[in-house]
Amino acid sequence: MGLFNVVRRRRTRGVRQPNPKDNAYLRSWAQGRRGVEGFVEPKTMVTETTVVLVAHDGEWTRRRISERDARELGKRLSIPVYDVALVGYPARMRAYTAELSRRQKRDENG
To answer: In what order do the strands lie in the sheet with 37-41?
Structure first.
């Protein structure tokens, strides 16, 4: 094994690859909600490229998927897909997450 193979293997160790079931899950999730938009997140040192789908009420889900597959999914489902690095996350997503956090804290405190 050459030096470059060792370096390449180390660089990808710990990076989780997309699961083939993720595309089907995203399709099903989007079809079950209104006003869905997609937000492609770039690859990082820890994860591959992901897409966040956000519904009209701020409910959201995230899965590993290639940018190409995310854009194809958007075309097939007629939903817009944005580059999150350019447009950011929608305010409704942050509000939804904050509300979930408030509910969890309230439930924990009884």
So the answer is: 60-64, 50-54, 37-41, 81-83
